[in-house]
Amino acid sequence: MEKIQAIKPGPKPNKPDGKPDERRRVNPPNQPKHPDLKPHIHKPKD
Fold it and tell me: Which segments carry the region annotation Disordered (predicted)?
């Protein structure tokens, strides 16, 4: 019987110099550069 394993997200990749890559999170000082998404408005019958 084969064992089924769930796919788990691995650790974030490291930069070439060995430091962790933190591009996937927004730090509080950079938050103004990343505005929230605008609300999506549906058209009638859409």
Answer: 1-46
pLDDT in tens, 4-34: 887 877 777 788 888 877 776 777 888 888 8
Asked if 21 and 13 count as a contact pair (C-beta separation under 8 A), the reply is: yes
Could you tell me the two tokens for 4? 């089924």
Whether the model clears a pTM of 0.70, i.e. scores above it, the answer is no
Cα separations in angstroms, 40 against 7, 34, 37, 43: 31, 18, 9, 10
- Cα torsion 8, 23, 40, 32: sign: positive
